[in-house]
Structures are given as C-alpha cells and as structure tokens.
Amino acid sequence: MNRLLSIAAVVAILVISLAASSLFVVDQTEQALVLRLGAHRDTIKEPGLHVKIPFIEDLVRYDKRLLALDPPDEQIILGDQKRIVVGTFTRFRIADPLKFYQSVRTEGQARAQLAQIVSSAMRRVLGQAMLQALLSDERAGIMGQIRDEVAERASRELGLQIVDIRLRRADLPEETSQSIYDRMKSERERQAKEARAQGYEWSQQIRARAERERTVLLAEAQRQAQIERGQGDAEANKIYAEAFAKDPRFFNLYRSLQAYRESLADGNTTLVLSPDNEFLRVMNAGPGSIR
C-alpha cells in the first residue's frame, strides 16, 4: 500500500512538473517565440495560456510596448559647413519578433544597432541641409526624411517599427556659440558707437539751427521794438505838442509835476536847493506862477 502511494506521489509530481514546463502565459504587454531545438516553431502575439513541448521547445519573450532610444548627443557638420550638436530621441517597437531574434536577439544589441542607423541617417540628411532650414518650418520635412530612412532600415534589418524620431536639441558647440556671441557683441557695440556719434552730430545741428533761429528772432524782435518805440515816441511827442498848443500853462504845470514825481518817487531822494531855485517855483507858488 505504501509502495502504491509512493508511486502515485511520484507520478503526480511528474505530471505537475510536466504541466508546469508545458504550459506558459503570455502577458498582454509581451510577445513570444516558440523555438523547437533552436528552430522557429511559432510566434505568439496574443495574450493568454499556451502550450509547448517540454525539454524540446524553448520560449523567448519580447516586450510589445513602445520602447525609447535616447542616444548621446553628437556633433554633425551641416551642408553650409556649420557644426552643430544634435540630440535625438526615437520611439520604436518590436514588430517582427522572429527577424528581431535572428538579427540581434536582445534589446541591448537592438538599441546599439538602431543608434548607429539613426546616426548614419541623420549625418547623411543633415549633411545636405542648411542651418537656416533646420531652424525654420523646413525642419519637419528634414526629420521626415530621417524617419523614413531609419524606418526602412530598421524594419528590414532588425524587425523594428519606428514610430517617431525627434530632435531633442540642435545647438551650436560651446566654442562656436561663444565666438558668435563675441562677434555679435562687437557688432552691436560698433552700431551703438555709430548711433551715438550720429546722435551727437544731429544734436549739434539742431542746437546750431535753434541758436541761429533764436538770434534771428531776437534781432527781428529788437528791430520791431525799436520801430514800435520810435512810433510811440513820435506819437507821444505829437500828443505833447498838441497839448502844449491848446494850453501851454497847463502843459508846463503837468511837466513840472511829472518832474517832481520822477525825482521824488522812491522817497529816499534828498535835494539840496535854494528856496528860489527854478525847480521849486511851481511847488512854492502854485499853478498860478506858471506863465
């Protein structure tokens, strides 16, 4: 009885081991190759439970999701002989697991070869492009050429599907950027000096023109003032003459009072005169003394 139980236990263990080595699960993020003695027997892309022959067939799993490649930046000479530092990123997936297995086997090898393919295509396409085109709307077309070339080679040689290739950066090298910055700075300083010199020249011209106009205006104003003053004096003399002709006594009285006002107007004037001085005649005698 014990012997039968032992045999049954051994058989059960063998059955479980056989089932464990025969059954396998493919996750929804995976795809698998079934190899029979190293030769391809089946490609499984659908998730679920599957069966293989134990000890004869092997299983190779590959990721079915989108994968990323971010190679190091590299310097490239453009068609106009300008040197730039280019950084790219590539998104791809394993579309043909069998070709992938036959060509590279592992993702590490696939990334290394794909990086070489991207670099080669980028150098060939960018080597014919100008820097101005790379910084304009033509950039999308240039990246489209690179993507098409990489996609064709990656599919044919590695079994990969290229989803997208983009430029992460496209900058001038540090030494070139510094040289261009220094040249731009010198050019701006030269333009600033020219602008200052031109502004100073214009300011001198404006000042000279304003001074000339000021001199002309002052001369014209003085001339006009002299004319007006002369006309005023003539009109005043005419009025005085007419007044004198109408009433000489009143005119003499008015002129005498005007002389007193002008001489004694500030209140601080001191006159030392004799009482019979002609200047004090009207003040002493009153208006009746004027003849």
Description:
This protein has 291 residues and is of the alpha+beta class. Among the domains are: 17-63, no CATH class; 67-172, Band 7 domain (Tetrahydropterin Synthase, Chain A); 247-291, no CATH class. 57% of the residues lie in helices and 20% in strands. The protein contains eight helices and nine strands. It has helices at residues 2-22, 97-103, 107-126, 131-134, 139-158, 174-246, 248-264, 281-285; strands at 23-26, 30-36, 39-44, 48-51, 57-63, 67-69, 74-77, 83-94, 160-171. Strands 6, 7, 8 and 9 form a four-stranded antiparallel β-sheet that branches. Strands 3-2-5 form a three-stranded antiparallel β-sheet, with no helix packed on it. The protein has a two-stranded antiparallel ribbon with strand order 1-4. A hairpin with a 2-residue loop joins strand 2 and strand 3 (39-44). Helix 3 runs antiparallel to helix 5 (139-158) and helix 6 crosses helix 7 (248-264). The protein is rod-shaped, with a radius of gyration of 56 Å. The mean pLDDT is 81.
The tally of strands reads 9
Quaternary state of the chains: single chain
In the CATH hierarchy, the third-tier topology of the domain at 67-172 is known as Tetrahydropterin Synthase, Chain A
- CATH-level-2 architecture of the domain at 67-172: 2-Layer Sandwich
State the end-to-end distance: 182 Å
Instruction: Choose one word for the global shape.
Output: rod-shaped
CATH superfamily of the domain at 67-172: Band 7 domain
Using the coordinates above, name the CATH class of the domain at 67-172.
Alpha Beta
- Helical fraction equals 55-70%
DSSP summary: helix tally: 8
